[in-house]
């Protein structure tokens, strides 16, 4: 009896808490002379993340609103910052006319959590699971 009640409460709780959304990505390059970078995250958090290119802010990304911007060809630093994790700065090489997909994720460690941005596969959309 207790198990049935617990199972029912669990099913009811989970069914109302998680929404699944499909977010489209526009892969059209913004420039033929610069690289196009698309930054997104599938974490489902309601928070936005500020994205930095070469230590300068280029915009904010949320789970349902990816960030798309141009960058000159060459090697650049890319990172984001949050209060609850250490931001990891990555260096990436970009070529003119190319589209780069970069995903934000939280790297959970034993003693330290890190927020990272890194390259991912080209895609037309991504799934967000969250509240």
Q: Do you know the CATH architecture? A: Sandwich
Major β-sheet, in short?
5 strands, mixed
The mean pLDDT is 81
Task: Examine the coordinates and then state which fold CATH places here, giving the name of the CATH topology.
Answer: Immunoglobulin-like
CATH class category name: Mainly Beta
Helix content: 10-25%
Number of domains: 1
Q: State the helix count.
A: 1
Largest beta sheet: strand ordering: 5-2-9-10-7
Uncertain residue ranges: 4-13
List the secondary-structure elements in sequence, H or E.
Answer: HEEEEEEEEEEE
Radius of gyration: 18 Å
Percentage of β-strand residues: over 45%
Structural class: mainly beta
Number of strands: 11
Which word captures the global form?
Answer: globular
Termini separation (Å)? Answer: 30 Å
Describe this structure in words.
This protein is mainly beta. It has a single domain, classed as Immunoglobulin-like (Sandwich). It contains 1 helix and 11 strands. The two termini are 30 Å apart. The relative contact order is 0.26. About 8% of the residues have low confidence.
Features:
131 residues, 50% strand, globular, Immunoglobulin-like, mainly beta, single chain, 4-stranded antiparallel beta sheet
Structure in a nutshell:
It contains one helix and eleven strands; from the N terminus they run αβββββββββββ. The chain has one domain: Immunoglobulin-like, CATH 2.60.40.
Topology readout:
Blueprint: H1 2-17, E1 19-24, E2 35-41, E3 49-53, E4 56-61, E5 67-71, E6 74-81, E7 86-87, E8 90-94, E9 99-107, E10 114-119, E11 125-130
